[in-house]
């Protein structure tokens, strides 16, 4: 039986990845600071452990796994990344985890490792025009990410690829573009735009009002979780080390995204644009390289995944409302 280690298995992407690997017949160990928030883990073995501690990393990587997936990181949405208040934690925590994981894998001769980077590492100067953002993989330099989160991702990309060159490892690096879907963070400040908008629309009455940070004309593309998992596994098992984008090429403004969610919810609400952290003006995945090297690229329309996500988040909102009502009674 093949074996896999998923670091960050208590998180959104990691928990979905564990389920898929189990469906393929793998024995899977998951490790994270916490268990998955919204469902039982599918992992055969789950370690609740802090990967910033090298001892915990060595305990998790106690054998040679067929595949290692490193998704553990300190991250969140714009409200967490772009305020500047969490920069030291973001850089220190994520870099420490990556250094520890690579060291532990090298000790046990684990070679096939996937690392989840982010489109946040692309230069801010190439993303000032919301209609024509530049995110080809070779546009990463001269480097100028828009956040310390992006700088740490860029450093870690180079770290994994250096281990390939110097130690004969087979690390694979993907740059994720705004992954969303059910069982992702939907409140609390670390949620991303699709989840935040689904929550706001679900909470507001028909004819009411929702708030959007900035003018809402900033553009993004969003990738549904199932397509992310497919691309991740394909890249890991390929002979291409990356870095490569894993994202959708369907670009929308944040205002348009809100309109899509309202249509799905069969509601019409006013948008009030307020000051807030927004990141770059435009970002969209460029998928020529992934098509060339993997013979595949994400192609599912945004609306399909958004429907599934809204249904799930609306259910969470109703459950939270019911708990609050019972507590107030």
Automatic annotation (TrEMBL):
Residues 4-247 form the NAD-dependent epimerase/dehydratase domain. Pfam families: Epimerase. Gene3D superfamilies: NAD(P)-binding Rossmann-like Domain (3.40.50.720), UDP-galactose 4-epimerase, domain 1 (3.90.25.10). The keyword Transcription does not apply. InterPro entries: Epimerase_deHydtase, NAD(P)-bd_dom_sf. It comes from the Bacteria. Keywords: NAD. The keyword NAD applies. This is NAD-dependent epimerase/dehydratase family protein.
């Amino acid at each position: 039986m093949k074996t896999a280690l998923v670091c960050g298995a208590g998180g959104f992407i990691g928990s979905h990845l564990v389920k898929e690997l189990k469906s393929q017949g793998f024995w899977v160990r998951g490790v994270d600071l916490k268990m998955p928030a919204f469902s039982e883990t599918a992992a055969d073995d789950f370690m609740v452990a802090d990967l910033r501690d090298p001892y915990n990393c060595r305990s998790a990587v106690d054998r040679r796994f067929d595949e290692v997936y490193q998704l553990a990181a300190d991250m969140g949405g714009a409200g967490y990344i772009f305020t500047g208040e969490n920069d030291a934690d973001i850089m220190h925590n994520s870099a420490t985890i990556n250094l520890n994981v690579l060291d532990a894998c090298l000790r046990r001769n684990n070679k096939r490792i996937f690392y989840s980077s982010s489109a946040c590492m692309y230069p801010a100067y190439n993303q000032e025009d919301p209609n024509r953002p530049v995110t080809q993989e070779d546009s990463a330099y001269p480097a100028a990410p828009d956040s310390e989160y992006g700088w740490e991702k860029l450093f870690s990309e180079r770290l994994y690829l250096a281990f390939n060159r110097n130690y004969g490892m087979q690390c694979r690096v993907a740059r994720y573009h705004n992954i969303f879907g059910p069982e992702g963070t939907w409140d609390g400040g670390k949620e991303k735009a699709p989840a935040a908008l689904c929550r706001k629309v679900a909470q507001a009455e028909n004819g009411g009002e929702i708030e959007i940070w900035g003018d809402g004309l900033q553009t993004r593309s969003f990738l549904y979780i199932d397509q992310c998992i497919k691309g991740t596994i394909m890249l890991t098992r390929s002979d291409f080390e990356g870095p490569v984008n894993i994202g959708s090429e369907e670009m929308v403004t944040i205002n348009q995204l809100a309109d899509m969610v309202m249509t799905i919810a069969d509601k019409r609400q006013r948008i009030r644009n307020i000051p807030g952290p927004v990141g770059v003006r435009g970002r969209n995945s460029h998928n020529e390289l992934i098509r060339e090297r993997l013979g595949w690229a994400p192609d599912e329309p945004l609306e399909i995944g958004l429907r599934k996500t809204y249904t799930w988040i609306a259910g969470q909102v109703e459950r939270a409302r019911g708990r609050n009502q019972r507590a107030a009674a």
